[in-house]
Amino acid sequence: MTTSKRLAAHLAKTADDRAPGATQDSPPDNPGEVEGGAASDPTSDDKEKDQVDEAQHAAAVAQAREEAEKAALTASTARMNAVFASEHYAGREAAANRLLGKPNLTAEDITEMLADLPKTTTPAALTEEQQRAAAEEAGRKEMQAALAEGKNSGVDANNGGGGADPKAEARKASDAVWAKAHGIKE
Fold first, then answer.
1. pTM here?
2. What are the CA-CA distances from residue 157 to residues 57, 161, 166, 173 (Å)?
3. What is the DSSP letter of 179?
4. What is the pLDDT of residue 61?
């Protein structure tokens, strides 16, 4: 029976690993033969070994992935904390948060960019009473501006004091259009 390639490679490797003066055991005449005379199927051993190797490989991949995720989370948190601790963070929070979303920027890059940006000032929170007063004042100013640019309306409040009634004129024009549409002559 011929020797499998795997067994031949193993025997060659073990022969190379031995010291030059050591004796070499001869390989068995039948590779499927085990000590004690029992025969075994070498292909079934290889399949079991491959299955064990695949399971070990999958476990090692899962462990490596978990370790990489932990390392990435730790690095990301350290980067974020470095930016938050920077003296340039206050007043530039929105820009810092957007820059932290860019994974290719380091904490040092982000703080340098923040230093170049102007600080934004947010107005102090107003109480409810202050908000109402501000809204009323804004309303008054808007009303004054509208009155200042507006002209007299032309409507006669007495409606009989000799002034023209705009509604009566509009009604008369509308009646004329309808009369023409119905073919009624005046």
1. 0.38
2. 95, 9, 11, 22
3. H
4. 92
